[in-house]
Design a protein that fits this description.
Elements: E1 7-9, E2 16-20, E3 23-27, E4 35-36, E5 40-47, E6 53-59, H1 61-64, H2 67-78, E7 89-94, E8 102-107, E9 111-113, H3 114-119, H4 127-146, E10 160-163, E11 167-170, H5 173-177, H6 198-206, H7 214-230, H8 240-249, H9 260-269, H10 281-291, H11 298-310
Antiparallel strand pairs: 1-2, 2-3, 3-5, 4-5, 5-6, 6-8, 7-8, 9-10, 10-11
Helix pairs in contact: 4-7, 4-10, 7-9, 9-10
Amino acid sequence: MATMQTVVQRPGDPNIYLYAMGEWYCYNPQIPPLGSGAMGDVYRGYRCSNGSVIAVKRVKDAYANNKMIRERARQEASLAFRHPNLVEMIGCCEYAPDSGPIFLLSHYVEGIEIDEFVKSLSGAANRVEVICNAVCSVLDALDYVHSRGVVHRDIKPSNIMIEKGSNVRLMDLGIARMNGGNKFSSYGFIGTPEYSAPEQILREQNGASVQINATTDIYSLGITMYELLAGVNPMACQAEAETLAKQMKMQLPTSPEIPRKLMRVIWKATDKEQSRRYQTALEFKNAIKDSLLPDPSPMERFLQWFKDHFNV
């Protein structure tokens, strides 16, 4: 019976029908995808019962036939994450359990990538504050997934969407769980080199000598935040080997677009040593908020000094 299958095609019908969580969805693979990456293509799909829009990601066959990737795709699709700053998954569909196309269904996010949104802020008096607030929303999402044992591993501007001009959504969590993101390096490194933490690079060289954890996402978001504020990612080089070398050794330079107090926060977030970074997303968020507060007046500094020294 057709209802026992999760993927169905009918003669003469261009649509592919997908069954997940007790409902049928469909998409037309002949219509160009909304976006494409190294891991797969994203199409506009629809809920058959009412026509509401969803997103359908077809994982490329080269990766879909990998047993580990299939298992992790199913696991990720089954996670019932519900958070205003995350894209909610619907389910995972496949023709067969061991090979062939595999599809990830999620709620559709109507918006633009955060770097495009930031361009619209050029010249705005509150530009820094708006960017910081957006980053704090990403940190709220990371705090949620980290508390559930998930590390994103591919934080970058193209994985952060601004929905309807305001709400921030962290994207691509499902693909990130498949060993880390949308770009496979020619050096055997999995991830996006321009945003990756040193331990992601070292992990390929030294096995279990380093850990991928919450501080890995904090590093990547720190690089992303710098790029959004400064307008450039100084880690990015034409030669990938040079990019990876910079991630291992180079501190981010100062930028006239970034206030000094905020720059110190970003430096801590992107420290090459994991133990010296912020250890949690909430800690990073609080540091950003504190950096935006006005400097205390001389009197306020004196009163604080007096309280600290005389236990008043």
